[in-house]
TrEMBL record:
Residues 16-76 form the HTH tetR-type domain. Pfam families: TetR_C_7, TetR_N. Gene3D superfamilies: Homeodomain-like, Tetracycline Repressor, domain 2. This is Transcriptional regulator, TetR family. Residues 39-58 bind DNA. InterPro entries: Homeodomain-like_sf (IPR009057), HTH-type_TetR-like_transc_reg (IPR050109), HTH_TetR (IPR001647), Tet_transcr_reg_TetR-rel_C_sf (IPR036271), TetR_C_Proteobacteria (IPR039536). Keywords: DNA-binding, Transcription, Transcription regulation. GO terms for molecular function: DNA-binding transcription factor activity; transcription cis-regulatory region binding. PROSITE patterns: HTH_TETR_2. The keyword Disulfide bond does not apply. Transmembrane segments: none annotated.
Amino acid sequence: MTRPKAKTVRRVPRGEKRRTELAEVAERLFLKHGFAETTMQMIASEAEASKETLYRHFSSKEALFAELISARAATVAGPQSALGRDEPPATALFELGMSLMHLMAKGEGASLFNIIIADAQRAPDLARIFYDQGPGATLKRLTAYLDSATRRGQLRCDDPRRAAKLFLGAVISHHHLHCLIGQPPVTISPVEMRKHVQAAVEMFLSHFAK
Protein backbone atom coordinates (compact mmCIF):
# COMPACT_ATOMS: atom_id res chain seq x y z
CA MET A 1 0.00 0.00 0.00
CA THR A 2 1.43 3.38 -1.02
CA ARG A 3 1.38 5.99 1.68
CA PRO A 4 0.19 9.47 0.66
CA LYS A 5 2.95 12.01 0.43
CA ALA A 6 3.22 14.29 3.42
CA LYS A 7 2.19 17.85 2.68
CA THR A 8 5.15 20.18 2.59
CA VAL A 9 4.75 23.10 4.98
CA ARG A 10 6.81 26.16 4.17
CA ARG A 11 8.67 27.41 7.22
CA VAL A 12 8.66 31.20 7.34
CA PRO A 13 12.19 32.50 7.98
CA ARG A 14 12.54 34.42 11.22
CA GLY A 15 13.59 37.60 9.43
CA GLU A 16 10.60 37.44 7.08
CA LYS A 17 8.24 36.83 9.99
CA ARG A 18 9.64 39.79 11.90
CA ARG A 19 9.30 42.00 8.83
CA THR A 20 5.63 41.07 8.55
CA GLU A 21 5.08 41.78 12.26
CA LEU A 22 6.66 45.23 11.91
CA ALA A 23 4.48 46.02 8.90
CA GLU A 24 1.33 44.97 10.77
CA VAL A 25 2.22 47.22 13.71
CA ALA A 26 2.92 50.12 11.36
CA GLU A 27 -0.44 49.67 9.63
CA ARG A 28 -2.29 49.81 12.95
CA LEU A 29 -0.50 53.01 13.90
CA PHE A 30 -1.03 54.61 10.48
CA LEU A 31 -4.76 53.93 10.74
CA LYS A 32 -4.90 55.20 14.32
CA HIS A 33 -2.70 58.30 14.12
CA GLY A 34 -2.31 59.00 10.41
CA PHE A 35 0.85 58.74 8.36
CA ALA A 36 2.37 62.13 9.23
CA GLU A 37 1.89 61.72 12.99
CA THR A 38 3.29 58.19 13.12
CA THR A 39 7.05 58.05 13.58
CA MET A 40 9.50 55.21 13.07
CA GLN A 41 10.24 55.41 16.81
CA MET A 42 6.55 54.85 17.59
CA ILE A 43 6.47 51.82 15.29
CA ALA A 44 9.62 50.36 16.82
CA SER A 45 8.38 50.89 20.39
CA GLU A 46 4.95 49.40 19.67
CA ALA A 47 6.60 46.38 18.04
CA GLU A 48 9.07 46.05 20.94
CA ALA A 49 11.95 46.40 18.50
CA SER A 50 14.90 48.75 18.22
CA LYS A 51 14.96 51.48 15.58
CA GLU A 52 18.01 49.74 14.15
CA THR A 53 15.97 46.58 13.62
CA LEU A 54 13.15 48.55 11.99
CA TYR A 55 15.52 50.38 9.65
CA ARG A 56 17.22 47.11 8.78
CA HIS A 57 13.92 45.95 7.32
CA PHE A 58 12.59 49.26 5.97
CA SER A 59 14.75 52.14 4.82
CA SER A 60 12.07 54.74 5.55
CA LYS A 61 8.49 55.25 6.66
CA GLU A 62 7.54 55.75 3.01
CA ALA A 63 9.13 52.42 2.06
CA LEU A 64 7.14 50.73 4.82
CA PHE A 65 3.89 52.28 3.61
CA ALA A 66 4.69 51.30 0.02
CA GLU A 67 5.12 47.66 1.06
CA LEU A 68 1.77 47.69 2.87
CA ILE A 69 -0.03 48.96 -0.22
CA SER A 70 1.86 46.60 -2.53
CA ALA A 71 0.88 43.63 -0.35
CA ARG A 72 -2.78 44.68 -0.57
CA ALA A 73 -2.58 44.91 -4.35
CA ALA A 74 -0.91 41.49 -4.56
CA THR A 75 -3.84 39.87 -2.74
CA VAL A 76 -6.18 41.37 -5.34
CA ALA A 77 -4.27 40.76 -8.58
CA GLY A 78 -0.94 39.15 -7.73
CA PRO A 79 0.86 36.24 -9.43
CA GLN A 80 -1.27 33.65 -7.62
CA SER A 81 -4.57 35.16 -8.76
CA ALA A 82 -6.64 33.96 -11.71
CA LEU A 83 -5.46 37.10 -13.48
CA GLY A 84 -1.83 36.18 -12.90
CA ARG A 85 -2.45 32.61 -14.10
CA ASP A 86 -4.10 33.83 -17.34
CA GLU A 87 -7.38 32.05 -16.58
CA PRO A 88 -10.28 32.58 -19.03
CA PRO A 89 -11.70 36.14 -18.92
CA ALA A 90 -14.96 35.27 -17.19
CA THR A 91 -13.07 33.50 -14.39
CA ALA A 92 -10.26 36.04 -14.02
CA LEU A 93 -12.53 39.08 -14.07
CA PHE A 94 -15.00 37.60 -11.61
CA GLU A 95 -12.24 36.71 -9.14
CA LEU A 96 -10.70 40.18 -9.47
CA GLY A 97 -14.07 41.82 -8.94
CA MET A 98 -14.82 39.75 -5.85
CA SER A 99 -11.39 40.49 -4.40
CA LEU A 100 -11.95 44.21 -4.84
CA MET A 101 -15.42 44.02 -3.32
CA HIS A 102 -14.15 42.09 -0.30
CA LEU A 103 -11.50 44.77 0.18
CA MET A 104 -14.18 47.46 0.10
CA ALA A 105 -16.52 45.49 2.38
CA LYS A 106 -13.83 45.13 5.04
CA GLY A 107 -13.24 48.87 4.91
CA GLU A 108 -9.49 48.46 4.42
CA GLY A 109 -9.32 50.20 1.06
CA ALA A 110 -11.35 53.16 2.29
CA SER A 111 -9.31 53.46 5.51
CA LEU A 112 -6.02 53.59 3.62
CA PHE A 113 -7.53 56.04 1.15
CA ASN A 114 -8.56 58.28 4.05
CA ILE A 115 -4.93 58.37 5.21
CA ILE A 116 -3.96 59.73 1.80
CA ILE A 117 -6.65 62.42 1.88
CA ALA A 118 -5.66 63.51 5.40
CA ASP A 119 -1.88 63.54 4.95
CA ALA A 120 -1.21 64.21 1.27
CA GLN A 121 -0.35 67.89 1.77
CA ARG A 122 2.07 67.19 4.63
CA ALA A 123 3.54 64.12 2.90
CA PRO A 124 3.28 64.87 -0.85
CA ASP A 125 4.91 61.60 -1.95
CA LEU A 126 2.25 59.60 -0.13
CA ALA A 127 -0.44 59.89 -2.83
CA ARG A 128 2.01 58.83 -5.53
CA ILE A 129 3.17 55.83 -3.48
CA PHE A 130 -0.41 54.80 -2.77
CA TYR A 131 -1.46 55.02 -6.42
CA ASP A 132 1.66 53.42 -7.90
CA GLN A 133 1.71 50.47 -5.49
CA GLY A 134 -2.07 50.03 -5.15
CA PRO A 135 -4.70 51.10 -7.72
CA GLY A 136 -2.06 51.83 -10.36
CA ALA A 137 -0.48 48.39 -9.99
CA THR A 138 -3.89 46.69 -10.25
CA LEU A 139 -4.73 48.75 -13.35
CA LYS A 140 -1.38 47.84 -14.89
CA ARG A 141 -1.86 44.11 -14.21
CA LEU A 142 -5.41 44.11 -15.56
CA THR A 143 -4.30 46.05 -18.65
CA ALA A 144 -1.56 43.48 -19.32
CA TYR A 145 -4.06 40.63 -18.86
CA LEU A 146 -6.59 42.17 -21.25
CA ASP A 147 -3.86 42.78 -23.82
CA SER A 148 -2.70 39.17 -23.50
CA ALA A 149 -6.27 37.82 -23.70
CA THR A 150 -6.84 39.90 -26.84
CA ARG A 151 -3.71 38.47 -28.46
CA ARG A 152 -4.94 34.96 -27.52
CA GLY A 153 -8.19 35.67 -29.31
CA GLN A 154 -10.34 35.56 -26.15
CA LEU A 155 -11.20 39.27 -26.07
CA ARG A 156 -11.40 42.23 -28.41
CA CYS A 157 -9.81 45.13 -26.54
CA ASP A 158 -8.36 47.69 -28.95
CA ASP A 159 -7.39 49.86 -25.97
CA PRO A 160 -6.73 47.47 -23.04
CA ARG A 161 -5.98 50.28 -20.57
CA ARG A 162 -9.29 52.02 -21.24
CA ALA A 163 -11.10 48.68 -21.02
CA ALA A 164 -9.39 47.97 -17.68
CA LYS A 165 -10.50 51.34 -16.32
CA LEU A 166 -14.08 50.67 -17.41
CA PHE A 167 -14.18 47.30 -15.66
CA LEU A 168 -12.64 48.55 -12.43
CA GLY A 169 -15.00 51.50 -12.38
CA ALA A 170 -18.03 49.30 -12.97
CA VAL A 171 -17.09 47.08 -10.02
CA ILE A 172 -16.01 49.48 -7.29
CA SER A 173 -16.75 53.15 -8.02
CA HIS A 174 -20.23 53.25 -6.43
CA HIS A 175 -19.30 51.08 -3.45
CA HIS A 176 -15.99 52.87 -2.94
CA LEU A 177 -17.79 56.21 -2.67
CA HIS A 178 -20.20 54.79 -0.11
CA CYS A 179 -17.34 53.35 1.94
CA LEU A 180 -15.49 56.66 1.98
CA ILE A 181 -18.50 58.55 3.36
CA GLY A 182 -19.51 55.76 5.73
CA GLN A 183 -22.59 54.68 3.82
CA PRO A 184 -24.49 52.43 3.49
CA PRO A 185 -24.49 51.46 7.19
CA VAL A 186 -25.55 47.88 6.36
CA THR A 187 -22.82 45.63 4.99
CA ILE A 188 -23.21 44.19 1.50
CA SER A 189 -24.37 40.59 1.63
CA PRO A 190 -22.28 37.90 -0.11
CA VAL A 191 -25.19 37.23 -2.46
CA GLU A 192 -25.50 40.88 -3.46
CA MET A 193 -21.75 41.10 -3.86
CA ARG A 194 -21.67 38.15 -6.26
CA LYS A 195 -24.64 39.50 -8.25
CA HIS A 196 -22.99 42.90 -8.59
CA VAL A 197 -19.65 41.50 -9.76
CA GLN A 198 -21.28 38.99 -12.12
CA ALA A 199 -23.32 41.80 -13.70
CA ALA A 200 -20.16 43.86 -14.19
CA VAL A 201 -18.39 40.89 -15.81
CA GLU A 202 -21.32 40.14 -18.12
CA MET A 203 -21.60 43.80 -19.13
CA PHE A 204 -17.86 43.93 -19.87
CA LEU A 205 -17.87 40.71 -21.88
CA SER A 206 -20.96 41.71 -23.84
CA HIS A 207 -18.86 44.46 -25.39
CA PHE A 208 -15.30 43.10 -25.34
CA ALA A 209 -15.69 39.33 -25.80
CA LYS A 210 -14.92 37.81 -29.18
